[in-house]
Structure formats: structure tokens, C-alpha cells
């Protein structure tokens, strides 16, 4: 009986028809097409996702750069080097003993009490469009409190190759404060009256050698020059030497740091140069890319414009335009008269 059952089952199995080679081939091809479609969609999704994230990263980096410049502008006392020499002809003299008009007299910046009072009250046109100016007590060639220059440079080299205000270069000087919030002064032992200490920030557009174009791409870089010296005596409760500077530690080596890249504009139609930095004259509400050296203390607003090129897969390109307008809180002219810009 058992043998008959076994034979019956074997006969049933032999009678079962399997899949043909053609049907197996068709099924395999269908599965391959489905898998290829799924992989294609996944790859396309990845590529598009990367484009979106790259664009978001570019926008975030550019906005962060604008925010950093804006924060420095709000805290700045003036554009250019506030420890300038004698301003343009017929402008108020920094030191009454040397008259009016341009000069390279090294006594233009002095610790004379009358001069310091004028400086602190903001009623003299002291700032220079170039940093360092000849009269800068820390970074100039005749510094009374010489700062340590960046590696590979000297104070005389810096004086011969200064940073000058333009549509591509912005120089800001920010007053420094000790941990208790008290303003710091330059530690000059010969000074009759202390002179305010400032940190200097230079924002500069430099060509991106890795992206010569066309169009030529630029990078926005910042270099900080910390106020030298230490607070004497240290604030109560402070352990160790307390630096006068408020520059972030990562910028104190005075090496340029890139804030944004891929910048291609806007271009100043008058000069053909980049028109990234614009200066707002508080007395006329006029915006210019070429600041007047005789009116530096009148510029209490900075406009930053950037056009950033973003390439996708080295082929398709798009341009992002960003703009930021910021006004100084510590501008000397605005502080003295106590009125807002344009009043």
C-alpha cells in the first residue's frame, strides 16, 4: 500500500509542468528594468538633493559673512584708521601746533590733553583712509606702543603697503573693553592722557586663483589686527594677564580668513571694479563706493552687496544676490551731535 502511494505521488510530480526558459527570461528582464528604474530615481534624488543642500550651504555662508561684517560695523567707531595724520586742507587740525592741510609730521598724533579731548569728543577729522596710517600709535612706522606685526611682515612694510578704503576694501576699528565693560586704553607710559584702544578689522575682496573665470571669482576675507598690550592692573577677579584686545582667538594670528567665495559682483560702472562696499554719508544721505578722505567721520553706514556664482555639476550656473545695510552705533560724529543720520 505504501509503495502504491509513493508511486502515485511521484507520478503526480512528474506530471507538474515547470516554468519555461522563455518565461524565466522575461521575468528576469522585467525585474532588471524595475531595478534600473528604482536606481535611476534614487540617483536623481541624490543629485537634486545635493544641489539643494549646496545652494543652501552657499546662501548660509554668504549670509553669515554679511552678519559678521554687520556686527563689526555696528560696533565700529569709524571707517579707516582713526589715528590718522592731518586731514585734507582746511579741515580741523589734529594738533593745533601743525596747522591745517595734509602732512606727514610724526607729531600729528600726540598724547596732548587738548588733542585727546578733541578726539574723544569727535570734533576733529582724524581718521585716515589707509591702515596703518603714519600716526597710528600701535601699527604705524613711528608707533609709541609698537604692536607685533604678522609673520613675515614689519611695521614699515605695513606702512608702505597699507589697506585703503575702497569698494573692495573695508577697514573698521572697534573700541575694546575689559571684562567688566570698562573701555581700554593704549598702554603708552609716555601718554599724558590715555588714548582709546581699538581692534582693527580689514575686509578685503581678493581674486580666487582656483576660479579665474570667466567670470573672475573673488573671495571675501577678513584679517584682524588686535590692540596690543594687557590691562594694567588686571580687573578684579581676573586670573593672569588680561589682553586689551577683544578679537576672537582664532583671528589673533593676523592671517586672512575666508568668509565667502564665488563672488562675481556687482561691478561699479564708474570704475569697473567690484562694488561690494558702499559708504553712507550721514550729512547728505548719499551712498558712494569712493569715500572722500576728508569726510571719513561722516560715513556712519556701510552697505554690502554681493553677487555669488554657484555652479552645478560644473555646467549650469546660478547667481544669488545679497545685500545688507548697517549703521554704526559708536560713530564719533553721530555720537557727538546725538542725532540720527540725515538729521
Can you walk through the features of this model?
The chain has 343 residues and is of the alpha+beta class. The protein contains five helices and eleven strands. The longest helix has 55 residues, at 21-75. 33% of the residues are buried.
In terms of DSSP E residues, the strand content is: 15-25%
Q: Radius of gyration in whole Å, from Cα?
A: 33 Å
Return the average pLDDT rounded to an integer. 75
Query: What is the general shape?
Result: elongated
**Number of helical stretches of at least 4 residues:** 5
Assembly classification: single chain
Distance between the termini: 117 Å
Spans of 5+ residues with little confidence (pLDDT < 50)?
Answer: 86-111, 120-125, 333-343
Instruction: Tell me the series of helices and strands, N- to C-terminal.
Output: HHEHEHEEEEEEEEEH
Please give the number of β-strands: 11
Briefly note the structural class of the backbone: alpha+beta
Overall number of domains: 1
Q: Helical percent range?
A: 25-40%
* Main sheet overview: 9 strands, antiparallel
Features:
343 residues; alpha+beta; nine-stranded antiparallel beta sheet; two-stranded antiparallel ribbon; 26% helix; disordered C terminus
Amino acid at each position: 500500500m505504501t509503495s502504491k502511494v509513493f508511486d502515485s505521488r511521484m507520478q503526480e510530480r512528474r506530471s507538474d509542468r515547470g516554468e519555461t526558459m522563455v518565461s524565466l527570461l522575461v521575468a528576469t528582464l522585467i525585474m532588471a528594468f524595475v531595478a534600473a528604474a528604482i536606481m535611476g530615481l534614487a540617483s536623481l534624488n541624490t543629485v537634486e538633493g545635493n544641489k539643494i543642500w549646496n545652494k543652501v550651504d552657499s546662501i548660509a555662508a554668504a549670509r553669515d559673512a554679511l552678519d559678521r561684517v554687520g556686527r563689526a560695523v555696528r560696533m565700529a567707531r569709524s571707517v579707516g584708521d582713526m589715528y590718522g595724520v592731518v586731514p585734507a586742507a582746511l579741515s580741523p587740525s589734529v594738533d593745533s601746533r601743525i596747522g591745517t592741510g595734509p602732512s606727514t609730521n610724526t607729531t600729528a598724533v600726540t598724547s596732548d590733553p587738548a588733542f585727546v579731548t578733541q578726539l574723544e569728543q569727535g570734533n576733529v577729522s582724524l581718521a585716515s583712509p589707509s591702515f596703518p596710517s603714519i600716526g597710528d600709535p600701535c601699527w604705524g612706522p613711528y608707533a609709541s606702543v609698537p604692536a607685533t606685526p604678522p609673520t613675515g611682515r614689519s611695521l614699515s612694510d605695513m606702512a608702505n603697503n597699507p589697506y585703503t578704503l575702497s569698494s573692495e576694501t573695508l577697514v573698521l576699528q572697534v573700541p575694546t573693553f575689559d571684562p567688566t565693560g570698562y573701555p581700554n586704553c593704549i598702554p603708552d607710559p609716555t601718554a599724558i592722557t590715555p588714548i582709546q584702544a581699538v581692534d582693527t578689522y580689514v575686509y578685503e575682496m581678493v581674486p580666487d586663483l582656483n576660479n579665474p573665470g570667466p567670470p573672475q571669482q573673488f573671495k571675501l576675507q577678513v584679517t584682524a589686527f588686535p590692540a596690543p598690550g594687557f590691562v594694567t592692573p588686571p580687573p578684579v577677579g581676573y586670573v593672569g594677564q588680561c589682553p586689551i584686545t577683544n578679537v576672537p582667538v582664532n583671528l589673533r594670528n593676523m592671517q586672512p580668513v575666508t568668509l565667502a567665495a564665488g563672488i562675481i559682483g556687482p561691478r561699479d560702472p564708474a570704475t569697473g571694479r567690484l562694488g561690494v562696499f558702499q559708504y553712507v554719508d550721514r550729512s547728505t544721505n548719499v551712498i558712494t563706493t569712493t569715500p572722500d578722505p576728508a569726510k571719513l567721520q561722516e560715513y556712519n553706514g556701510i552697505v554690502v552687496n554681493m553677487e555669488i556664482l554657484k555652479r552645478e555639476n560644473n555646467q549650469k550656473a546660478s547667481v544669488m544676490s545679497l545685500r545688507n545695510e548697517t549703521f554704526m552705533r559708536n560713530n564719533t560724529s553721530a555720537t557727538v551731535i546725538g542725532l540720527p543720520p540725515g538729521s
